[in-house]
């Protein structure tokens, strides 16, 4: 092998020493953080719980207010036009269902919002008891 093709030698013990120093500093820093957390476990668990709650409370869910429903053959559905009337299975004054992600969670009555009379709202009258799923 000629001298032009040879690679310069790197002092391996010097590189290993630098890497060891960096590793030791990282370990000491980690130990310091861990010992601080051990001194205040209640604060850490409360912070973690609050962080988990904010993640959970931020999950969007679909809320529907179901006024009523009906069944009809496809031929009647196809015959619907602008101005057609569809009869629902509920009467005026009957409670409506509050459905979250496909599951009924409450019932209520339709009301007009005091703050904006041009909009409807729901006044909850019953919370449906949760059933355990298998």
From TrEMBL:
Pfam annotation, one family: FliMN_C
A GO MF term: cytoskeletal motor activity
Location of this chain's protein in the cell: Cell membrane; Bacterial flagellum basal body
Location of the region described as Disordered in the Swiss-Prot/TrEMBL record: 1-22
Membrane topology field: Peripheral membrane protein
Record family assignment: Belongs to the FliN/MopA/SpaO family.
The protein's name in its UniProt record: Flagellar motor switch protein FliN
Source species: Aminobacter carboxidus
